[in-house]
Amino acid sequence: MKVLLIHNRYQFAGGEDGVVKAEQSLLKAHGHQVSLLEVSNHDIKNTWDKVATGISAIYSYSAKQQVRIQISQLRPDVVHVHNFFPLLSPSIYDACREYGLSIVQTLHNYRLACPKAIPFRDAKVCVDCFGQKVPWSSVLHGCYRNSRIQSSIIAAMNSWHGLRGTWQEQVDAYIVFTQFQKDKMLQAGLPAEKFYIKPNFVFAPDSRNQNGKDSDYLLFVGRLSEEKGVSILIDAYVQNNLSTPLKIVGDGPCYEKLQQQIKNTDSENFIEFLGFQDKSTVLALMQNARFLIFPSIWYEGFPLTIAEAFACGLPVLVSKLGSMGEIVEDGVTGLHFEAGNQTDMAAKILWATTHPEIMRTMGKNAHQVYKAKYAPEANYQQLMAIYQQVINKKNIVSHW
Fold this sequence. Notes:
Order of helices and strands: EHEHHEHEEEHHHEHEEHEHEHEHEHEHHH
GO molecular function, one term: glycosyltransferase activity
Organism: Nostoc punctiforme (strain ATCC 29133 / PCC 73102)
Shape: globular
Strand order of the largest sheet: 2-1-3-4-7-8
Distance between the termini: 13 Å
Keywords: Transferase
Protein name: Glycosyl transferase, group 1
Largest sheet: 6 strands, parallel
CATH topology of the largest domain: Rossmann fold
InterPro entries: Glyco_trans_1, Glyco_trans_4-like_N, Glycosyltransferase_grp1
Strand content: 15-25%
């Protein structure tokens, strides 16, 4: 099969970029001919670039031509779009339709329902724009990068393409990661019959810690930003005098603020900030931790960190919110706590640290779930089934 992947990279590499590379490698490993059309937000360098990008985010004729060229060269059987915002725009769908190609779109975030893409405002979940034909709330609050102008551009993109029928008619399949995400995107008016639930996958680490001994630290891995809930995790330590060592891996806008939060408290002796670490280091830390803590206070999509923990046989303590409560089964592969509740979080941390045998069993369960759902081969089979279904629906043996 010939597959054209399309992706707009962000200025700061994130999970989406990793997923694209992983799926490209997976498809090539199975003998498929894969081409990746990729652009980067690093190309937005000055004010004029920002203005031009804003205009083209709604409909880019140059991006449409780029896709035409790629299609004519590869002659793909299916086009898989990961991210089109802001440089490519939904115009790329029109290019694919001109050739009668099947289009698959992975929804890595909530952009089609929320111009900010992250439904989170004023330190809490916000779904004001879900289902609105014109997402005025996002414009009023300047949700995207604290700018009413930039928020207006995305609102215009969503509204115009909603009225034009782009979201409903152009895409043959939407891939979401969980049932929760599907339910939320249905509120945005996307057609239910076009949804497929397929989680992301991660490659297994080179080796696993099989010694059965208790490790002496807990682990957080992620971006240090408000919606990730790290401040609440630190509160749980400070307010409840938790003393099990905690390693915090990651960087972000809240890094210094979080360090100040533990300054002159006993928690300084137990919480260690490791900053950004490469993937091999993160996996090594996971293999030797007691459990992973994931205290996010927004819906999340599909956190690769949780899948990586499962691959390492590491149970996860997670906020019972959105997709997280669906991915981690309470009492089976980890524990749930009330999102944003530092007292409940602290209670679950204390319980987990005092029941090591039960937590080890949860870790073994997590690894079994990884092999069944989040390993490369299982994911490949799901992806190919989606590709084949959208191709078959057109009743076309070959476009060429």
